[in-house]
Structures are given as C-alpha cells and as structure tokens.
Amino acid sequence: MAWFMGIDIGSGTSKGVITEDGRPVARHLLPSGGNYRATAQRLREELLARAGLSAEDIACTMTTGHTVNLPFATERVTDIRCCARGINSLFPSVRTVIDIQGMSSQVVRLSEKGQVTNFVVSERCAAGSGRFLDVIANVLRIDLADVGPISLKSRSAVTFTTGCAVFGESEAISRVSEGAAVEDILAGVHEALAEKVSALVARVGLEKDCAISGGGALNIGLAQSIERKLRIKLLVPPHPQFVNALGAAIIAEERSKVAASPRPETK
Amino acid sequence: MTGNIRVAGEQKQGLARAGQIYHDRDIRMRQLKAEGRKVLGYLDIYPVLEMLTALDLVPFGILGDIKEPISRADACLPTIVCPFLRSALDLGLKGRYDFLDGLVAAHTCEVGEKWAHIWRIYIDLPYIHYIDTPHTTHQSAREHLAVLLSDFQGTLESFTGAKLTPERLRRAIRMHNEQRALVRGLYDLRKPDPPLIAGTEVVQVLVALISLPVEEGNELLRQVIDEVKQRHDGPKKKPARLLLWGSVVDSTDLIAMIEDLEANVVMDDTFVGSRAYFSDVKLTDDPLEGLAEHYLVDIRNPRTFRETALDEANRKDYWADLESRHGYLKDYAREWNVNGVILQTLRYCDIQGYEVPGLKDYLEHIGLPCTYLEWNYSQAALSPLRTRVQAFLEVIG
Question: Taking all residues of chain A, what is their mean pLDDT, rounded to a whole number?
Fold first, then answer.
C-alpha cells in the first residue's frame, strides 16, 4: 500500500493532505506563523499522526506555496499546477477555477486531464485576495468566519471605489463613521473583490464548469458575489482551502507512477 | 592593444572580462579619464553614439541597479513613474556616475524626457544635450531628426573644440556597425540546442559593451565568440527555449531566475538586448541622414509609432496590422527555434505596456505561447514571478 503527501504553505495557513489511490484519506491545517520550515515539519508530523501512518509509509511528498527546501519533500511544484490537479480530481468537468488565496488570487484554465492551459495571477498587492477581507474584518471587529453570513443580510451594499486592501481599510472606516450598516459594508467589500476576480477571469476567458477554491471559497457572501458578477453557478469543493495540497499529493502519486513504470525496451 | 586591458591588476579575457566589467562598470571609464579621455553618459538606445565616437568621446550607458534601494531620487521624481529611470537618477544623485563629463539623452518616453531635464537641474555636468527624437517614421520626422542631429553636432563640436567631419563620422559608423554585426554573431551562438551561451552571459557581455569604448567592445566580442565556440561546458539542453520581450533588462537577475528553471532564454527583444544591434546604419552621402533613418525607422521599439504599411483599403485589418508591426518577432522565433515568449514590462512603463495586448493577440494568433509579467525593478519583486514563469513552463510543456 502506498500513500502520498501534499503540503501547501500559505501566507495565512498551511495545509497538508495524504492520498491513497488519488483519494484524500487525511487532511490537516495549521497557522503558517513566521517559520515556514518549522510549520511544514509540524504539519507533516501531525498529519501522519492523524492518518495513523509513519514517515516511511509515504512514497512521495510534494510541496507548494511559500515553501523552502524541505528535506522530506521530493520536489516543489507551483500552486497553479496543484490547483488544476486538485480541482480536476474533485470535479472532472471543471475547466476554469478561481483560487482565492490569502495574499493573491489566481484564475486557472485546465484541460479535461487537469493540465494547466492558461492562468493569470493577481498583480503584486493584496487587492482581490483574502487579505482584503482580513483587513476589513479587523476594522469592523468581527470574526473572519462571520463575514460571509453577515454580508448576506445586506439590502444595500456600500460601493467601494477601490479593491486595494490599504485604501479599502480607510474607505471602510469612512463608511463606518457615516453610519453604514456592517452587513452593507461587507457586501460592498465582496462586490469590490468580485469585480477584481471577474477582471482576472476576463483575461484568461471563462469556460464552464467553473469552480472556486482557496480560503476565499469558504466565504459564502464572496462566492455569491462572484456568481452574480460572472452570471454562472460556481462549484465549491467540500474543503476548498485544501485543494492545492490535494493537487500536490496527486502530483506526487503521478510522479511515483512514472518513476515506477518500466522503460520501453530499445530495439 | 585594446584586447589586453588590465582591470584591477588582473588581466582577464572573454567572458571573464565581460563578467568583471559587468560587476565593476566604471573601472575602465575611470582609467580612460585618467588618460585624458572625456566620458559622456547616455540613456537608452536613442542617443547617437556614432557622433560621440567620431569625436573621440567615450560613450557610457547609464543603467539602474535593482539591488540599490531608491531613496534620493524620490525627492526629484514621483514614485509612480518608471522604476528603472528612478533608479538611474538615484545612482546619479548618489555619485555612482561622478566620472561623467557630460550626458546625452533622447526622447525615449515621456518620463525619459523629464528625467533628462531633472538630471540637468540636480546633477551639474560640463556638457548636457537632449535630442527630442520624434516618435513617428514619416519622411518629415526623419528630416526633422537629421536637423536635430545637426544641432547635436554643433554642441559636441563646441564642447570638444574639434570638427566632426563626414569622414570621421563614417569611420565611427563603420566601427559601430562592426559591433552590431559582432553582436548578431554572438546571438547566432544562441541558435543551437542547447544554446552555446547562456542568457545571463549574454546580458553580462552586453552590459560590458555599453561600459567600454566601441573598439574595446568589439575586441571583447571577438574574444567571447571565440571562447564560446571552443568551450564544452555551456548551458544544458532544456525543454523551453524562450524569447524575452519588453522593458530594459540591465542585470542578470531576471534571466537567472528563468534559466534556473527548465528554460533557456535564447533570444530577446529588449534594451540592453538585441534592439540596438539588429540593423546597421547605412552610409549615406550625408551621414546624418543615414543615422536619422536608422534611429527612427530601422530600430524596432514600441517608443516609435510605426504606422501600418498597409494600403488604405486594408488599413483597419487588425491581424495584418499586427503582422506589419510584430512580424519580425515571428522571424526571431523561427530562427532561434523559440517555443515560448515572456513579455515583461516594468511597472509604470507605459511605452512597452501599451504594446502588450496587441502583441499577446499576435503571438497567440501565430501559435506561440506567451505570458506577461509586470514587475517592479527590484530583487524582491522577482520571487513571485518565479511561480508564474514555472507555471508558464508547465503550460508549454
């Protein structure tokens, strides 16, 4: 029996998945903290414990995200490729995936085999990323997990003139001082983020089916805003923040199969 | 003997010498100054270097430094302009170019124009000349540039006290044309698979070229070409053979990041890269006419608006227009066997940035995969780009 591990070190949280025959059998998440190497090590140990496995049981480990050279990893692969592989294993019909991460967002186009055919990544700043939501939640003194559900109560979303996390913070403070309702501010933030995301989608083109992944996909308000903006129904995986780690584990499995396959005989 | 220059007490040749000058750009300039030569700094590829060489002036290409944080320039230039120009001015203000006797700038872009005037205000030099190079290729624009070059000739003659005769100018044009031919010979070494010379090595050689008098640069090129042809430890074969297009690439860092992955950068269309070298100056009866033709028409660069060569009936044919403007890149891709293009522009580089949407359309139209990177001219900005390049390499297989 062979198991495979994928480790995704994100800017906010780090995720790990163990697969067996392409199916996830264990997952684990930790805050990334300030020492990614130590976090990766701890994540691996706790993930193995959850799965009831030892390090020797893992045939191959792939890492992605903000990874450094980890002694237990076979190779580092891009989060774009991991996203495509991960979502393909969950939703084979998906050809476009919107990945809302902590510090950036990306839109990946993929083939029926889960190969990346095109991609675009948000530019340089936190605009259009989960970090924007962090900043606004902090201003409004609410828990990040409550942002989505609260926003659904909005009847008149505040219009944000910026998608920039820094200017967005001061704009949110201005709206608070004007007496805008919290749910309307949050709904406005989601609209601003959805605008940024839809601009990314337009750059690579939208092909159905379309899925959303990453921590941002946990936010029901944001997902619905993107659906309205793109006029489509998004597929949401059961554990969207683990998609890239899952993809990394699947790539590890594929790599092992290629390495194990016999070389064709030369004539 | 120009090929045996002693640098920092140690004689180097070929690639080693190029690397040494790349890392220590002013060393030869300071030696020449000590010998009584005058050194004129210049920016980008539009100052007409042949006219400097003809008067025994030494041209020195002003560059930025992505490892040096920009600080003093922020007092003179807004932060929302080209970071390369901000960096170049910053180095000037910090005394990095204190060996210069003068400066020649030309209208490469709007910020470049302001940059030249701001340099004039803040950095006092005995000689400064600005060439207001037109941005179209009409006959009237060519004639106007020839007049501007005549003005340039006048200020150079006043500065040096020497007469710029047509014979001297033709001799200098031949020397610079020889350099162009040698650079094309250097680029021929990138055509095999694997290329015989790495993209990072080419950058080092080209930066060394703009840090040396033209005759010494030509000698360096001959040494490098001979050395590369004979060595057996060149770059490894990799699946991706890339063309790098766009804004200034004046350090090895960006290409090193790309070549650290499964790719060789085998061709470019950039400054400090091929742009200045892939066409020769014609030797016309009035040398200034040939120079005007070359700098305005022959050099392919987004800063010059090239009206479509199509007739009136086909003028609005988008794809034919793109072919007319970018067809040379298809030739590059074929000759250098390129299978992917990286379009890179510096943040706020409008001149190159405006070209990107149409160029992407064109490359996709001819079946050449491309990706677009916008970056901020700093080492820190390179790290996030690595993931994008890696993903692009995965896409092109």
Answer: 90
Report the Cα B223 to chain-centroid distance in Å: 21
Residues A57-66, mean pLDDT to the nearest whole number: 94
Q: Is B378 on the interface with A (CB under 8 A)?
A: no
What is the CATH topology of the domain spanning B195-396?
Rossmann fold (3.40.50)
Name every chain A residue with its beta carbon within 8 A of the beta carbon of B395: 116-119
In this predicted model, what pLDDT tens digit does every residue of A143-166 receive, in sequence order? 888 999 999 999 999 888 766 666
Cα distance between residue B196 and residue A176, in whole Å:
63
The tokens describing B312, both together, are: 């009136």
A contact test, residue of B387, B389, B392 with most A CBs within 10 A: B387
Please compute the mean of the pLDDT values over residues B208-230 and round it to a whole number: 98
How far off is chain A from B246, nearest CA to CA, in Å? 18
pLDDT score recorded for residue A126: 60
CATH 1.25.40.10 fits domain B26-171? no
Of B347, B374, B387, the CB nearest to A79: B387
Condensed to tens digits (0 to 9), the pLDDT of residues A104-141 reads 899 999 999 999 999 998 875 666 677 788 888 888 88
A123 φ/ψ angles, rounded to the nearest 5 degrees: -80, 135
Asked whether the predicted pLDDT for residue A190 surpasses 80, the reply is: yes
Is residue B5 scored above 70 in pLDDT?
no
User: Does the distance separating the beta carbons of B374 and A116 come in below 8 Å?
Assistant: no
Instruction: Answer yes or no: are the C-beta atoms of B263 and B393 closer than 8 Å.
Output: yes
Q: Would you kindly state where each structural domain of chain B is located, as residue ranges?
A: 26-171, 195-396
pLDDT confidence tier of residue A173, bands split at 50, 70 and 90: confident
- What is the rounded distance in angstroms from the CA atom of residue A258 to the CA atom of residue A75? 14
- A193-220: string of b/e by CB count within 10 Å (b at 16+)? bbebbbebbeebebeebbbbbbbbbbbe
pLDDT in tens, B8-66: 556 689 999 999 999 999 999 999 999 999 999 999 999 999 999 999 999 999 999 99
pLDDT at A33 over 50: yes
Which pLDDT does position B82 carry in this prediction? Answer: 94
**Same topology between domain B26-171 and domain B195-396:** yes
Quote ipTM for the complex. 0.71
Angle B161-B163-B166 from CA coordinates, rounded to 5°: 160
pTM of the model: 0.85
**What average pLDDT does this structure show over B88-94?**
97
What chain A holds in terms of domains, given with CATH numbers, is 1-78+238-267 (3.30.420.40), 92-236 (3.30.420.40)
* Sheet arrangement for strand A116-121: A116-121, A105-110, A96-100, A210-213, A234-235
CA B151 to the chain's CA centroid:
24
